Fold each of these.
Amino acid sequence: MTKKLYIIDGHAHIYAAYFAPMRPLTSPAGEPTKAVYIFTTIIAGLLKNHKPDMLVVTMDSKTPSFRTKIYPDYKAHRPPMPDDMPAQIARIEQLLDAMRIPILRVDGFEADDLIGTLAKQGSAKECDVLICSKDKDMLQLLDKHVSTFDVKTGEKFSVDSMKNDMKLTPEQFLDCLALQGDTADNVPGVADVGPKTALGWIQEYGSIENLYDHADEIKGKRGESLRESKDIAMLSKELVTIDCDAPVQFDEAGFAVKGPDKNKLSELFDELGFVNLKSQFGLEAGGEKTGTGAETTGLRSIKTLEHNYHLVDTEEKFDYFLIKLKKQKLFAIDTETTSIDPMSAELVGINFCWQPHEAYYLPVRGPLGSSLLDIKTVRKHLSDILADETIKKIGQNIKYDLLVLKNAQMPMRGIFFDTMVASYCLDPLRNSNSMDTMALDYLNYNCVAISSLIGKGKNQLTFDMVDPHTACDYAAEDADVTYQLYEYLKVRLDKQEVIKRLFEQVEMPLVEVLTEIEYNGVSLDTNLLRNMSGQIADSLIQLSENIYEQAGCVFNIDSPKQLAEVLFDKLGLTSLASGKTGRTTNAAVLEQLAGQHPIIKMVLEYRQLSKLQNTYVDKLGTLINHKTNRVHASFNQTITATGRLSSSDPNLQNIPIRTELGKKIRSAFIPASSDDHILSADYSQIELRLLAHFSKDKALLDAFANDMDIHTFVASQIYSVPQKEVTSDMRSRCKAVN
């Protein structure tokens, strides 16, 4: 089997990671780590998803390349490296060393030259060489064994791709680069010649040399510029030509993927705060992962740790438990229920913990014949404790427990710490903030799986069907692990004052606000939705008939494969993009094809109507809670990396508004009664207000203080006219600028 060598353009990926549109990240010690984190996740994804046989990272020389001797202004205009980047590059090199991935750097040569040399040598050995770079210069290296590879999308660009898309060979593409120049590297090229012109010339004349042999045929200003710039064009070609004879050697054994030094990598991940990356490299909190079971991997579990979990299933045990609980000023609490939907779930039991490895399970529902506590007795004695704001409550996704307990007529106050929210604040890019995942990452602990009690799939039980004695360890463990996570996360928060302030002053108060919003829910006009569904169904039938008529056949419009066959084979439209499974018919492609045939517009309309019907019109009514006759969406604090809320079941934030049909769907959300109203509110120019505050710009501050229309005000300043003379066009232009 042909071996695959992946060559990563190191500095290019580091720069892309550094400037990626994401908030800055720091280690527990405050060290900047955003570029380090993103680069490491790229490596992890490459290893996991593409399983290279060989992997090497090339880096630019720390000394000027030979090209500066040819042309002193080469790369002269590049800005200096950001101050906090060198330290991150050093960290990346430490991580690569721990991963046993070789780094190549040679004085006087750029990473491009090392890539070119290795690609040439690897191709000679008939290896598949994949150059991980978006630099267009790399396309000159393509041959039957060498392709470029986008680590983000997984897409390859081969010599055949170049032939089909550009009608060029790699050697001809090099000539295009010479003609158009490169502003980033300060390669001059021919004045007034861009990529489109360069491509057209080389497609017509075949090479830069032949182009100059026929330079008199090129008319106008560009022809004049071409003829005057022959020396510059040839210099540019020399500058953009990758040196494939750099002093590096293809080393199959040295480049072979070996797996990391797990202890070293684990220590670095702990130091950098990258605990969520450990599982991707087969690591656990203790370092080496040596086996598959909890007992052999070093993972702790309920089987290996001493614990004291109490089943409180009699009045006598409950009285004893209450004596202890009433002494506590802080405890972790967790509920067991019959459903993951808090608004339809029935309470099965409550778990408490206030010290590690000891917890209590209070069952109130169970199989017939089980020893259980009476829910009325539990409510009578626990309600005051739960409602006491001076007693601090800790939970994992405590919003769920708040809703469950409120529906069980035991509303809870004193919400102090949510471990899921704390973990999210500390690392918004974690793949999961579930209790089980955090227990693995933070505590080196393997929780009891819920499936071991209730099973999976269509035969899955509900928790009230599990015997309380069997359920006790699982249930009490939930509260115990939550308490231990609290102790771990609190220490990390205490070290990061800004994040701690965000957690305590913004995110935790928001938990109770969102609980109230979810509990209240929203009413729907189901009659309106039913009428809309019928109208959309009729429209879809008519659209389908029109599409079949245009296609000249009946086919499954919802099948991308069948649609591609109709558009590209039967109707002969030009395919503009390909995906992993063949020719793409996604919305972006269809929009580009819109002018080629009337069927495209019909298909786009069909898809839009079908999506609205399936996602909203038909589905919203099925989400109405039969107890409240309202829809209770979930609002999620811990999903987006940006800090924005997300909404699910249903996603209320994505209901369309720009189309008439979208507005009609929104009109199905109605007040609970004729005496109520729905109030729409939004920030007024919040970003510009922040700009005014931080810049202290007097004109902006005065405009806001006097409650002016800020876009009109800015337009009057830019166009130097009184505000009364600002036209709507002027205002629109300045609104775009603002």
Amino acid sequence: EIYDYLRLLFARIGIMHCVDCGTGISTQTVDEIVDAVMRLPEGHRVMLMAPMVRERRGAHQEVLQSIREAQLIRARVDGEIYLLEDVPPLAVRKNHTIEAIVDRLVIKPGIETRLQDSIETALRLSGQTVLVASQGKNVRDSSNNGFDEQLLSTAMACPDCGFSFPEIETRTFSFNSPLGACAHCDGTGRVEDEAGIEITCPECGGSRLGPQAHAVKIKGLNIVELCSQPLSDALEWYDSLLDGLDPVHKRIAEPIRLELIRRTKYLIRVGVAYLTMNRAAETLSGGELQRVRLATNIGSGLTGVCYVLDEPSIGLHPADHDRLIDCMRDLREGGNTLVVVEHDEATMRAADCLVDVGPAAGRLGGQIIAKGTPKEVSDDQSSLTGAYLRGERSVPVPADRRTSKKRMKLTEVRTHNLDAVTVEFPLGTLIGIAGVSGSGKSSLINETLYPALAEKLGVVAPAPGPHKRLTGHQSIDKLIPIDQSPIGRSSRSCPATYSGVLDEIRKVFAATRGAKVRGFAANRFSFNSPAGRCQLCKGHGNERIEMNFLSDLWIRCSRCGGKRFNRQTLQVRFKGASIADVLEMSIGEAAEFFENVPRVKRLLDSLVDVGLGYVHLGQPSTTLSGGEAQRIKLGTELARVATGKTLYLLDEPTTGLHFADIERLVAVLQRLVDSGNTAIVIEHNLELLAACDHLIEMGPNGGREGGKLVAEGTPEHLAECETATGRFLRGYLQSR
């Protein structure tokens, strides 16, 4: 709701500026103008003028005549005061400025009636604008020198250009309203160029707001500029908002300012101070989005609510965990209940009640193994989680760290907040990229190193962020980015199709006696093949029921019962199981089922090795978490023959992983590096960072306060540094 309050603030105290010339425009009633003049010190001399011509060519005889008809006797022409009969002829081809002098008076009690009459005359002559020029009582210069001038108006119009503007409303700053949306892009921020490619709108610069919203400013900033600042910077702006405001604007702004400060502080407390206020929601990670929601609920003041949070620590540096836990405690102290699904050790230890579910995953799980206080679960010998909490089991810390003389060097990177950073990556090692949220890790690796190296290897990738050069890449011949993006967006996509294991399984079924008798080739066992799939659901396993103005309804296919294949295809069996039965198996079960088929077994074992034994082979990819999708990619790559010169890039691969899964993941990464490959991992998890050969820490903070290389070296070296990661790594290594 921060933006709602900002819209209110700018609508109530914002100053409109002409979109053409930038002149400040304010609108006041006649009484307010009288009050403003009467606030001048007593004894000040005031001259009230009606602006008639502003920097316009011509002789303007008709203007001078209109002043005479108003029974006025003086005018200021091009800055000089004349009696009307003494005004010199004006050059037709030159720009001129003419103001009718309506009255001259001295500020003292009792002049209010005369002042109001004179102001109304000026407003009537000029079209709702009056120029108030004031002099100190000891100044006797009758020219323009020595005057302080203030242009006041009862209309929202530029006195210089003559452009008029509608009244400022909260809708002026809403891109969902026709009043505020950019007319060029209809408030979307994007348009299509001549080639049909979507680009940032050239009119609004992607802000989605029209020119009027950009023209309203408070203390030199418009709402777009303010929302482009990180939350931490915005909080400083709110703190100093009242400085320099007049008493009326202070009274208006104060309650709005307090709400802005309160909400922003909650967001900063949950660890997202580096986010800009205009950051699109779809660009936030799952953890960031959860923490924004958490801050919103803390600020709501509700009580008696049950909150369910799914891994809120995702993407959060250990330095921010305490603040997140404090926020959750605030909700608890407010009379609420929090149920938190979490793998983070600090969160587990902070819980009032800890529930350990297991003993394993998938069909081997589903039982309550232990329940109680963290200490009680830690002491429970049957709990795998307890074994890690009491230190009986842990992710191994290597006794020796790999070193390498071969180095890849990225020079003077300036992507986003990176401050001309130069980084060296020792090849043939496991490299961890650490740092608080927003410190520049993704900017360095995902947006600069990856596309720069892809460019060198001839791989299609986005343009790299600004940097000087990349050297030492000759020892890399293959680049494998493994992120958390979905492995597919349809129900037909699943782990079996993405990993390629279904291709091998289809060959197995095609080689059976039943398939040969029926003349079925391998493609018959694909739910993408018209010959083998159920014709009613087209291989989806579900039917779509159109509900007109309601959302479409999906139900299990009435013909195939969700098996996806037609009856003839399902009659072919391998070891008593149909192709549909195989897809219903977990990856672990399938690995045992195909133990005598080496090509299938190798692919499935690699997926089991990365902790995915519980996932079903045919599970739709749309139901997989980001961490699961990333591990499917990793397992698939693990099954391929590595060149020994491959660079793997992973972005927080421990997301959603239990201690035991992290132990398994670390073993897989070490195996990849033992083969001569290089793995670069962006990570916050201390278990994985401690297992790395070389660490690179960005910081010292997030956003504008980040973007620097603050430390690099072995985990032991970083543990000696007084950095955000170093302090936590020190405690972790000492406990092992």
Amino acid sequence: SEGSIFWATLIEIGGKTMKKIIIPVFLIVVGLSVYFLSQNKSQSDQNQRVFSFRLRTDPPTFDWSLATDAVSIDVIENIMDGLLQYDDNLEPIPAIAKSWDVSHDGKTFTFHLRNDVYWTDGKVVTAHDFEYSWKRFLNPKTAAEYAYFLYDVQGAEDYNQGVSKNADTVAAKALDDFTFEVKLRNPASFFLHIPVFMVAYPQRQDIIEKFGDQWTKPENIVTCGAYTLAQIDFKNKVVLKANPKYYEGKPALEEVHALIIKSDHTAVDLFETQKLDVLRDIPPLTLDQYKNDPRFFKSPFLRGYYYGFNIKKKPFDDVRVRRAFAHSIDKTVFPDILKGGQIPTNSWVPTGMMGHEPDVGLKFDLEKARKLLADAGYPEGKGLPHVEVHFDSRDLNKTVAEKLQQVWKQNLSVSVELQNSEWKVYLKQVHIDSPQVWRMGWGADFPDPDNFLRLFTTNSGNNFTRWGSKEFDQLILKAASSFNKEERLKSYKRAQQILLEEDTVIVPLFVESLNYMIHPRVEKYWLNAMEKVSLKKVRLKKL
């Protein structure tokens, strides 16, 4: 061949010339092969340590004194630790606090901290960081909507409501660098769950005072959890990196990418192309095709889905109108149209939790609904003021809203206008000036009915109904102070009767279920009944 003649000619010219040409070329080829193989191996190894999951929208805040939404909390709970953490049975166990003591009257908790927990800048986490955080959280200037979570602490409510101007009246104090004492105004049977939740995480006074409202930027923030906040690329992703100083040891995942994906269908496509390791919020119409997929998992979920009324806005300032709208809904339709194993409910406290009362709440009664609307002066919906129903943009929420629009038109002859907006905008709206009718959900921050019912107390920052009841408030306080289960259940039942039947300020629709997909390479990923996952336990394996 021509090639053979060419090489033979070169050989004839001289062996030395050939050696000078072939050896360098050979070395270059080998070198490039080794380089590309090492690059591919390096990339493969890197991919084995990068885990990706979805955020439905841009996180509104990374300040754990201000966060109230699941999107922010998904990140915060993996960059921070508190005094305690949950085991797999949702029981509080040691974290930064290695142990604790409780007084005989159940009103004084003394937490003994580890001395080997470090902030990401190398400083030791101390009891003073907890004292500062709790008092900043309760400071009225902070405007924390979850402030009521600490109201059982002596002096907390008065300080938060401005009755007391002195933070030292709040009985949460560092006795020394590693001893944190909390005194309660009354015994609280669920109190050990509070130090697990993000509102009770420590904070660094020097960092917050130095950077002001910019303290949560990646270049400023200091944290003490399994991961660090490395990058925030709004509308794209949040990047977390393994914390080499973490007191339980550096986690296995080198990086965690929280991808901001607003469309449920886009999230499905990214999961199928292996750009997402976990898929939550599976669209209703997609669920059927996954139910027999080995990657599909389903588990109980302590999360209620409800519609609320602003009782200060017409026509919902009339309880008869609120009851009419509630009685007109047949909630059994939702599992059929959503296909996710949702459980219809009239009770606000969810199925699977102490305090769930299946016989409490307004049931579907079309005749009663129409009579109530007529009694309020709006027979067959005639003369009813214009009604807007608001929800945050998500496929499931749109499906529910459109069904309710149809139900109220068909059953009450009432036309409602649907309005939707993305989560951050929507959340701000319901806080500042909640619409006539609005959608919201509530997932357990701790597994106790107090977490669901204290939400609607008069001073709760998450009560968007503009409703308050002294009797309701007293019942919640009484139940919290009791260690007698039967007494607590009696108080919670009466509280739900006021909330759901007598005053009808919200309408529970269903209890959600957890439906999610996990890529086969993911190990030790498990969502508990509060939809919390500790990414420090997650591993990735080679397939």
